[in-house]
User: Fold these one by one.
Assistant:
Number 1:
Amino acid sequence: MIQDRVIVIGGGLAGTEAAWQIAQAGVAVTLYEMRPIRTSPAHHTEELAELVCSNSFGANNSDRAAGLLHEELRRLGSRIIATADYHSVPAGGALAVDRGVFSSDLTRTLASHPLIELKRGEITEIPQDSIVVLATGPLTSPQLTEDLQKFTGMEYMSFFDAASPIIVGESIDREVAFLASRYDKGEAAYLNCPMNKEQYLNFQQELSKAEQAELKDFERETAKFFEGCLPIEELAQRGEDTMRYGPLKPVGLFDSRLGDFRALENKGKRPYAVVQLRQEDKAGQLWNMVGFQTNLRWGEQKRVFKLIPGLENAEFVRMGVMHRNTFINSPQLLEPTLQFKSKKTILAAGQLVGTEGYTAAAAGGWLAGTNAARLALGQKPLSMPETTMMGALFDFISSASPKHFQPMPPNFGIIPPLPTKVKNKRERYGQYRDRSFADLATWKQSLQPELATIN
C-alpha cells in the first residue's frame, strides 16, 4: 500500500517519535494533538512530548532494563532520546531532563520539519482509509475511546489500571513455594506461597497499616466503579479473615512434596493461607501475584510483600498500581510490528498498547512510525529481535495471555534466557546487554540499505 501521507494521532512521547521517524523516512505526516483545543486532566501545557509525571526516564546504565532500552534507541536514531540526552540534568545514574526545555525543543523541531504538519484539534474517529498511528496515551478522549471500542469489537477495555505486582521467577524461593493447582485439578499452573497462622496475622496487620499512594481527583472518580476489584490492603482492613476467604484462600492447595493431597486434607495439613503466583509469560520467567492489585506506595509494597514466605528476596519487575489508564488488549489485537491484526494499515504505540514508562513509549513510537513509513513506501513492516529489550517488550505485549494482560515496563524478565544460566544478577544483565547490542547490529546490517536513515 503506497500512500503519500501518514496520520499520527497523539502528540505525546510515542506520537512525537512516530511522526519524526515517518518524516525522516521521506514520508509526509500529519500529527494531530488535541491540546490546547481540548485539555486533559494530567497535562499542563500544549507542548508535544510533555512529561506529566517525573522528569526522569529511568536508569541510564545499559546493564539496567531502562538503560538498555535507552541505548538501543540511541543506536536506532531516536529523536526523543537524542533530545533527552541534550537537555539532561544531573540525576545520579538516571537520565533526567529539564522537562520544559525538553518538550518545547521537540515541539519546535517537529513543527519546523518540512514533511510534518502539526494540527491542533481532537480526532474522534479513527480514519479507515489512511495509514494511521494511534498514540493517544492513557487518557484517550471518551469519543475516540468509544470509536476504538467499535473498531476492536471489544465491549470492554481497561479504563482503570488495577494491576498486581510481577516478580522474577528466579527470585522466588522454590524450597518454600510449591507448584500446584487447587485440588490437584488440571495442570499445576500456580506457584503457591503457604502461610501459617502467625505469618498470616503478621502480614495482615502490616498490610492494613501500610502507606497508600494518593489518587488524583480524576482517578478517584473512576476508581469508585471498581468495587469488584478492591486493593488487597482494603481487603486486609475489612477483617482478619477477609483475605483468607478471598484471594488468599488455602482450600484445596497442598504441597505434594509432603504427600498426597487427599491424605494431607484428611489430616488437616493445608496451609492457613496461601498467596498464589500465576505464570505471566510463555517462558515462565515472570510471575504475577494473583489478586494483589494495590494502591500502596512502591516502597511499602516491597516491604510488606517480602513478608510472604518464599518472597523474602523477591525481585519486582512491576509494582502493583491503581490509576486511570486506557489500554487495549494487545495480545488479542496487535502483531509484534504494532499493526492491528484486523487492519494492518492501523498501528498503535505508547501506553495505549500496554507498555509502561517514557522510554517504552518512545520505543513504541519508533517502531510504529518506522513501520507506518514502510507501509506508505510499499515495504514490508519490521519486527525487532526478541533478544533486544525493544523486541522482547513488543513480543510480550503481542503474545501474553489475553485473559490476564496488564501493562508491562521494560525488564530483563521478558528477555529470552541466556544459553548458559548465569547466577550473578549483574553479570547476567551484562550478558543480556551484550547479546542485545550484537543482535541489534546484525539486524540493522541485514536491513541495509533499507534503514539508511538509522545512525
Number 2:
Amino acid sequence: MKAQVFRGVNQLSYEDISIPEIGADEVLVQVRVVGLCQSDIKKIRYPLYEPPRIFGHETAGVISAIGEAVTDWQVGQRVVVMHHIPCMRCAYCLNENFSMCDTYKRITTTAGFVPSGGGFAEYVKVPGHIVRNGGLIPIPDSVTFEQASFVEPTNCCLKAVKKAKVEPGQTVLITGAGPIGLMFAMLVKYFGARAIATDLIPARIEKALNVGAEAAFDARDPDLSAKIKALTGGMGVDICLLAVPSEKAFFQGLDCTRKGGKILFFAEFPDEVEIPINPNILYRRELDLMGSYSSSYRLQALAADIVFNRRIDVDKLVSDRYPLKELTAAVERAVQPTPETYKILLYPENGKE
C-alpha cells in the first residue's frame, strides 16, 4: 500500500509499505478520507518524535478485514476511527479527565512503524482495545466520509465548549477564525449562545459571520474592546475561547471578558512562551483560567450526533482537497494559508467518495 512516512523534520516520503497484519481482535480499515490537523503539522515540522512514523488521525473509511475474534463488526462497514480511547479505570478516568489517562495518550492505531495514528496511508490497523471500547463509530448511509472525518475534531471543540459551560444567552469571544475557531462559532450558536469572532484575515472574518457568529472583528482593531463592550451592555463577554496561540489574543480576551467570566486556552502555545499576569487581576475580577486538551470519551456519542445529524454544517469548513501523495503541499498550504484556506482533507489512492 501507499503511505506518507515521516522520515525526519519536514521530510515526508510517499512510499510503498506492507499492509498491516491484524491480530485476532483487530480490524483493518481502508482509509477513504483523513483530515489534516494542526497537531499533525507540528509533528511533521518540529523535532517532537523519532522517525519513521505515519501520522494522521481524523480518519474515516471502510472495514476491509476483521480478526477471527471480532464479532461486532463486519467487512464493508463504513466507520470513523478514533485513535484515543481511555482505560476507564485509572484515577484520571474516574475523575473524567480522560485525556490525561496514560492509555488514552498512548496511540495504538497504526499503518506501520511506531503507532502514531496511521491515517496518512491506504490502510490503518485498529487494535483490540480500540475495537472493543467504542473506538469505531459506524457512519450512517446518509453521511459522507468527508463529514464523518469531522467527528474527532468536533469532539475536541465540544469538550472545550462543555468545560467552559457555554449556556444559552451567553456571549462567547472566539479568538481566531480558522477551521477550529469556525467550528467553535457553530457549536456556540448550536448551544444557544452568541459568538463573536476575531481574526486578521478579512475573508475569515466574513466566513465567521457566514457560519453563525453574531459579530466578527479584525483582531487589530484598536476599538475592539469598546465594540465588544457595546455588544454586551458594557459588561464584556462571558467566555473567551483562545483558538490561536497568541499572547496578544490572550490579553485582548482578558480585556474583553467580564468580571466573573472565563478564559479557556484551546490552542497549544510554543513551550518557550510565558505570559506575565498580575494575579490580582484574576483575584479582583474573579476570572477563571482553564485549558482544554484533546477529546472526551464522555462526549463521543454527542459529537457523532452533532456531525451525523448536521446540527452544525461541517461542509462549510472544507476548503482544500489533496490526494495523499501531495501531503507535503497540503502542509505548506496549511502553514501559509490563502484567505480562503480552512480545513484540508486528504484522499488515499484507493478512491474518493
Number 3:
Amino acid sequence: MSRLNALFLTLAVALGLALLAGRPPAPRPADAPTEAFSAIRALVDVGVIARSPHPVGSPENAQVRDYLVLRMNALGLSPEVRPDFGFRRIDRVSQPVFLGGAVENIVGVLPGRDRSAPALAIMAHYDSVPNSPGAADDAAGVATALEIARILRAGPPPMRDVIFVITDGEEAGLLGAQAFFSGDPMARRIGFLVNMEARGGGGLVQ
C-alpha cells in the first residue's frame, strides 16, 4: 500500500470514529432507572407544554405556567410564580428599539447540603413564538430541567442549592431573564448557570 493510500485510509478511519463518538446516546425508555435521564419521560412534558402556540401574555401561556407549577410542586421544588416587568433597549439598529412587557417567571429550589454556597441555576423559558408550539424552543429545555430535577430528587441532596429558573417572555426579547437578573434577589445567590435554550433556526452561533 502506498503512503498516500495509507494516509487516506487513516483519515477515513479517523473520520468514522469521530462520527461514532459524536452520535448522541439512544433515548432511555420511560421505565429507565430512577437515576438515569429518560428522554421518553421528558417527552411527556414536551407534549403538554407544546400542545399549542403559547406566546407571553396569552391564555395558553397561563395554562403552561399552571402545569409547570404543578409539576415542580410534585418534584418538591416549592415553585413561586414571580410576576415582573421586563424592559430592554436594543442599540443594534439605526434607532434604539425598546422592548417591554409583563412576565411571570417560575422559580423553584432544590435545597442542597450547604445552603450558604453559591447555587447552581438551571434555566429555560416556557413561552413560545406566536406561530409555533415551541416544542424545540424551548419546551425541550423546560422538560429537560424537570427530568434533571427528578433525578436529583431521587438521589442524596446535592452539595449546594439547585435553582430552577423557568423564564417567561423570552421570545418577546429576553424579558423574563432581564427581569430576573436585574431585580430578583434569588439571582444574587447564583454562582453558575446552565441555560438550556434552543439554538433556533438561524443567526450567529457562539
